[in-house]
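Q: Please design a sequence for this.
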């Protein structure tokens, strides 16, 4: 089963609900759990791998975009951005508190440094540094900004962008099929042509059943929606 939505904002909002439905109270204790199925939001580059680039799928890239992996183990990790050449002279240089996850996809086994979860203090610090580097590179111009851009991309690629596979955007769900699909309300756009296209893609992902929910509903209906999603995930 999968929840399918339209925007990344909706995805970020739905992920905690999906994780609680699947993992119960443990979902609120850790952002990633052993046994959890994750999907790569973007390609995972060699700097994010703790095993070296030789374990990856391609040179410089260890895992392609939109690939599902199973978490085998997870442990805390710290990443000091001073090690990437940042200087306190240019602003606050944080130590990013994140996780290192051992994951597998078929015969491929990797240990990846994960991007901090959305909403966390570590993610806020990382985003602030990335925004600062972007602005510095732009202000430095085409020639003067090259070294800053290199630093920017090195830090960006040092963290793997993985998220729970239980919630997907319509775009990422294309080409896949699932037992049951739960269609989030933001799929039903006000523009009829866009709504028709999104609805078709979302509904046609399902093999056995489709659940839809409006923008507002009673607590009892919302609870039934969560209960059915949890049951479908346990029986997948």
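A: Design:
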């Amino acid at each position: 089963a999968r929840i399918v939505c339209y925007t990344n904002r909706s995805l970020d909002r739905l992920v905690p609900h999906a994780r609680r439905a699947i993992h119960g109270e443990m979902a609120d204790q850790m952002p990633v759990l052993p046994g959890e199925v994750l999907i790569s939001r973007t390609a995972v580059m060699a700097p994010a791998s703790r095993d070296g680039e030789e374990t990856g799928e391609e040179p410089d890239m260890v895992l392609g975009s939109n690939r599902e992996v199973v978490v085998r183990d997870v442990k805390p990790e710290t990443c000091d951005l001073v090690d990437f050449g940042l200087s306190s002279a240019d602003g606050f240089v944080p130590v990013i508190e994140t996780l290192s996850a051992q994951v597998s996809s078929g015969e491929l086994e990797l240990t990846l440094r994960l991007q901090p979860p959305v909403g966390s203090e570590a993610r806020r610090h990382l985003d602030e540094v990335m925004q600062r580097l972007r602005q510095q590179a732009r202000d430095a111009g085409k020639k003067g900004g090259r070294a800053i851009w290199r630093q920017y991309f090195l830090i960006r690629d040092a963290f793997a962008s993985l998220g729970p596979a239980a919630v997907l955007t319509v775009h990422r769900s294309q080409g896949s099929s699932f037992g049951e699909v739960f269609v989030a309300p933001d799929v039903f756009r006000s523009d009829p042509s866009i709504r028709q296209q999104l609805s078709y893609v979302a509904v046609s992902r399902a093999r056995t059943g489709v659940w839809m929910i409006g923008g507002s509903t009673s607590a009892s209906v919302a609870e039934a929606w969560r209960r059915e999603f949890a049951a479908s995930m346990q029986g997948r």
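Q: Thanks. Anything notable?
A: The longest strand covers residues 68-80. The mean pLDDT is 87.
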